[in-house]
Amino acid sequence: MSKETLRGAVLGYPIEHSLSPALHKAAFKLLGVSGEYSAIEVRSGGLQNFLQERGEEFDYLSLTMPLKEEALELKMDITIDDLGRRIQSINTLVKREGSWSATSTDGSGFVKALNNAGYERFEKVLILGAGGTARAVAGALDEIATSVDVMRRSVRRSPAIAACFQKIECNFLDWDDLADLSSYDLVVNTTPSGAADLVAENLSNSVNGLLFDVLYKPWPTLLGRRWSDAGGKTLGGLELLLYQGIDQLNLVTNVEGKVIDQDLRIALTNVTT
């Protein structure tokens, strides 16, 4: 899809903190696209009503919590791709010929953020958390990791995250605030703000791997600060937001081949400082 004028929005709750409008509006300007993009509060259970009542207003929609799983249960004309079904998480809806198509760009954005920082493959990875973002990360790690551990708070989500892997079999660990993270060359924190603070408090004095914390507000997180203090490298959620957003835009306009990530990174940094 490529249009001279695009109409988009990010949906979720809470939504007032979202940086997606700043990202997409800056991209429109860089690409010479006339467009509108806003943040709209849609609470749990409200996605289908929103699409039925206001869907005609938009060409594409970004979904954040708590709607990434809800999109899979819509009782309407919607095409969900194989990736979205495998990871059971949707962050992008695109209107094609009057009906909606659904996918996730969280995983591809995660990989591109790693690639941009100079990382392509990992031997031993730990994912903290087992929710929707963790599943997107898991699906991506299936291609670039040799082994993956998932530290979970509940066994209920284990089957869904295990199904994200096709090439490797993940290992589940019960949540442990005293867990030793120093043996991993990549740790990905997908938990909500504050959930990993006790893990951070108990972090080893020396780490060598990379921490990718998907949160961007507040940044740095306590885990991010402690990881840096212990000698490790960190990537924050702004990088994930940036590249998953670029991949969303590539579904609706002609981004491919245009290098806009540095300009968009500056735009995001300007609104967070």
From TrEMBL:
Question: From the record, what ranges are coiled-coil?
Answer: none
Gene3D superfamilies named in the record: Leucine Dehydrogenase, chain A, domain 1, NAD(P)-binding Rossmann-like Domain
List the SUPFAM superfamilies hit by this protein, alphabetically: Aminoacid dehydrogenase-like, N-terminal domain (SSF53223), NAD(P)-binding Rossmann-fold domains (SSF51735)
Among InterPro entries, the record links this protein to:
Aminoacid_DH-like_N_sf, NAD(P)-bd_dom_sf, Shikimate_DH-bd_N, Shikimate_DH_fam, Shikm_DH/Glu-tRNA_Rdtase
Q: Which residues form the Shikimate dehydrogenase substrate binding N-terminal domain?
A: 10-93
Show the GO MF annotations: NADP binding; shikimate 3-dehydrogenase (NADP+) activity
Specify the protein name.
Unannotated protein
UniProt-listed Pfam families:
Shikimate_DH (PF01488), Shikimate_dh_N (PF08501)
An example GO BP is: shikimate metabolic process
Q: Name one GO cellular component term.
A: cytosol
